[in-house]
Amino acid sequence: MAGEPQADCLFCKIVAGEVPATVVRQTETTVAFRDINPQAPTHVLVIPKAHYPNAAALAAAEPRLAADLLREAGEVAAQEKVDAYRTVLNTGSGAGQTVFHVHAHVLAGRGLEWPPG
Ligand code: 5GP
Ligand code: ZN
Question: Using 50, 70 and 90 to split pLDDT, how confident is the model at 1?
């Protein structure tokens, strides 16, 4: 069923506490934890506890949960005391997605040039 935990999903295992992570914030519906391979001084991943493969699938199935994810990205930035940050939602392996449980990257603390390339 949509949103149910997937046995082979790394981020479902982090939600379940089966894989350790440095959790920085948690709500009823989301978890935010530090990326294991940070690309910036602040690099936090925000995920819904429910499993959806990407942002569009999440928004189509549970729009309020998609809003929770984006709101939490802002809360992470506030907690990290950064005034500018970039939120990245990769979809598809061609775009660099390697974990197929939707996650928002929150990147901050270094120059974030635009366009990103
Ligand atoms: P993607 O490439 O799918 O957009 O992002 C996946 C992110 O998950 C990568 O930035 C990668 O460093 C991170 N990641 C992969 N495995 C783990 C892990 O076991 N723990 C944590 N905290 N991050 C992970
Ligand atoms: Zn999952």
Answer: confident
Determine the atom of ligand 1 nearest the C-alpha atom of 98: 3
Question: How many Å apart are CA 68 and CA 106, to the nearest integer?
Answer: 14
87 burial level (CB within 10 Å; 0-12, 13-18, 19+) = middle
* Residue ranges covered by each domain of the chain: 10-108
Q: Model-level pTM greater than 0.90?
A: yes
44 lines ligand 1 (CB under 6 A): no
Fold adopted by 10-108: HIT family, subunit A (3.30.428)
Ligand nearest to the CA of 48: 2
The model's pLDDT over 40-73, given as tens digits with 9 standing for 90+, comes to: 999 999 999 999 999 999 999 999 999 999 999 9
Cα–Cα distance for residue pair 22/80, rounded to 1 Å: 14
Pick the ligand that lies closest to the CA of residue 106.
Answer: 1
Can you tell me the distance from the alpha carbon of 18 to that of 78, in angstroms, rounded to the nearest whole number?
Answer: 28
